[in-house]
Design goal:
about 200 residues; alpha/beta; Multidrug-efflux Transporter Regulator, Chain: A, Domain 2; Rossmann fold; three-stranded antiparallel beta sheet
């Protein structure tokens, strides 16, 4: 298993491959274990497979290759919104989605889920609350900055309603690119998003 592969977007899960091959996840894991199918582990420890590797696996084993499955759809910039407050997540997602097809948006609700989602979704921008359950945003920033395989080029916009505990300097020192206090207005958020990823 090679954990230093450069990973093209988006990687496949063992479930994706099981559905494609009409088999079980257990069988896919056996292919990985015996070296027939190369995989890497995401920050959460789950196996992920590049589309290129899966295509090679199908060709080597004489299995059908469905071109539409492998065709990439050109989308806008990827944005992951991470906050345990659903109303904040919904507001940011709605605001970004209202910018036509410019942004593809996914969400997560705690620090652990955010690390996994970052490895899978490979966002251009992570908009993240600093005070989150399981792993706080400062620790998420540190881990992402230490793991260049999954996070090369990612921009992090940290948001917080607790400026007394998380001041701007502390947050930026831990790896965030920008800092925004709650409550914020939509113009401020969009201006920062535009500045960070266009």
């Amino acid at each position: 298993m090679n954990s230093t592969l450069p990973v093209p977007d988006p990687p496949l899960t063992t479930g994706d491959i099981a559905r494609y091959c009409h088999t079980t996840v257990m069988q896919v894991n056996r292919w990985i274990k015996n070296g027939n199918l190369k995989a890497f582990r995401n920050p959460g420890g789950q196996n992920r497979i590049t589309r290129q590797e899966f295509r090679s696996f199908l060709e080597r084993n004489g299995m059908p290759v469905l071109d539409e499955f492998f065709r990439e759809i050109e989308k806008g910039k990827r944005v992951l919104v991470a906050d345990d407050d659903q109303s904040v997540v919904d507001a940011i997602r709605y605001l970004l989605m209202a910018q036509s097809d410019k942004y593809e948006v996914r969400v997560s609700h705690d620090g652990y889920e955010t690390l996994i989602a970052t490895g899978d979704f490979k966002p251009d921008l992570l908009i993240m609350d600093i005070r989150m359950p399981k792993i706080d945003g400062l620790e998420v920033c540190r881990r992402l900055r230490q793991n260049h395989n999954y996070t090369h080029g990612i921009k992090i916009l940290a948001i917080t309603g607790h400026s007394e505990a998380y001041d701007r300097e502390l947050v930026l020192d831990n790896g965030a690119d920008e800092y925004l206090l709650k409550p914020f207005d939509k113009k401020s958020l969009l201006a920062l998003v535009q500045r960070l990823i266009g």
